[in-house]
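Worked Example 4.2. Consider the chain below.
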Amino acid sequence: MSDELPPIAGDAALQLCLEAELPAESAGDLTRALRVLRAGRSRGAALVLTWLDTAEADLAEAGLTLEQPRRGPRRLLRVLPEDGAAWLPGSLPHGLDDHDLPNAPLVAFAAFDGRRSTLPLARQVDATLLQGRLRAVAAEAPVLRLQLSGPAEAVLAAFRALAEDVPALPPRAALPEMARALARMQPPRPRRLGAPVLDPDMDVEDALRRLIGHLAEVLLWHAPTAATGEDPTGVHQMRVAIRRLRSALRAFRPAADGDSLRRFDAAARELANVLGPARDWDVFLAGLGAEISMALPNEARITALLRAAGTRREAAYDALRNTLAGPGFRRLIWDAVALVATAPWRTEGDVEAEARRRDPLPDFAAGVIDKRWRKLTEIGPEIGHLPDAEFHALRLEGKRVRYVAELFAPLWARKRGRRFLARLAEVQEAFGLANDAAVARALVAPLGLKGGGASLWAVGVAEGWALARARRARSRAAAAWDELLAGEPFWNQG
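Applying the procedure from the previous section yields the following structure tokens:
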């Protein structure tokens, strides 16, 4: 995998090849959708691919695999990007020189058996459809993947158009990685998790492109878990990724702005608004709700309250599932890919923004964090008696500082950044506990109304419990705030 992102797709001659994954049952819908875009006859042939590795999985450990078609030369492929390397969601595995293959014998661990069909589409785009099955010794799984190649703008437009009618998204893992996971009876390995790590040698524009691609992969990875509703980690991590993404978009606005980024930010906000209720009910039921249940285990009215809360949680997850299965989420992901590939801010921004994109990344980052820091700390040291609305606003400002500080901290000495982030995390944890309690009060209040499923007595208990918890958390936040202000910002040190 190259350490460089693909060139900006401003040149009409620039070619791009991207892949989408679809559920096998969508094959008919995909065929009909492609028929609308077709510009010639399709051709098809049988395709068999076999993947090999050592018995100790040395290639897989390095993020590689050896692919052997039934006809033609074998290829050494990178299926996982290297740490810190650039990545464009939807990219195909990258071919490497195979002269460094391990000396140990290679054995087949899985294969693809199916058909490869090619179809010319409008605007000089070529479509390649892979349909068949992955096969391992003890398991098999259906495969439906679509690859589009051609002029970059046309490829991106075609995927966005298809996504309106079929569930086409960049794959969460390359086909050989899915084969490895199937053979080992394990989940595939994620390409990207957590926060992106930037390098001080990057320019400002490259940093923005990398973080958009990284966080789009994080969203893709956690979406299936979020949709099931069985593990709250999925919703939580998607929500964190959206917040990181939106915070970064705002942070980079002095250097990159325009209608495309603003529309993308608005779509990300819509997803955040759907993730929010599901996460809020998860936090309530696992936190304050569980505490009340333990304190009053045999109280039928509390049981009814929690049952009603569970019903609201399921409704929130139903709404989230509909969103993740709908075209809006697919548009968001393909728009992220388009932003990375085309950098529309180059034509939509102004001259001053263009100059800032040429700034050294640490200089740009220091200015962004310092501006956020000054806004956060202008309230002064006394926060213990702030009204609830002002306390909540301070919490949001703290979250914005934390996301940009977390993003840019690797540009400086890591020890300094870790100390600052640890103090800021302590503040945010205390702020978060207070906010969770405030959110809980707002969540349970409607449950006591007619048809809400809970008695006013139970709602009152929950609200009182939440109020007491919030007061304790605010006291803790004031102490953590003092510690934060006493430290020295890492970005202002030489």
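The longest strand covers residues 106-121. The beta strands are 15-21, 43-54, 64-69, 75-78, 94-96, 106-121, 125-135, 140-151. Compare this with Example 4.1 before moving on.
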